[in-house]
Specification:
Elements lengths: L1 H6 L4 H10 L1 H18 L3 H7 L1 H7 L1 H16 L5 H25 L1
Helix pairs in contact: 2-3, 3-6, 4-5, 6-7
Length: 106
Amino acid sequence: MVYIFIDRNLSILNITDDFMGRPYIIAGMVAFLSLVPLAVTSTKKSQIKLGLVWKKIHRLIYFSALSVLIHFIWQMKLDVSIPMLYLIGFIVIVLIKFHKKEISTS
């Protein structure tokens, strides 16, 4: 990431052109930045202090994982078979989780 800025002589126009030309960079940044609140609030002390809000914050992991998968798919130029397998696995895991949640609440 820092390499991009140095390589482009810290010119905002050059950096913007890079981001528009390679949208996977934006998806990767979104994925990384969405993991920051999870890392900050992952301590036991944060769990106790935040209570139920902690669970809501940590549901952000689904958005983060999806952003990572979008980044991975866009980054691959030709063969997207491996990223698609990860995407299918993610969808299956999410469906199982929410199906189990529906069963336990009914």
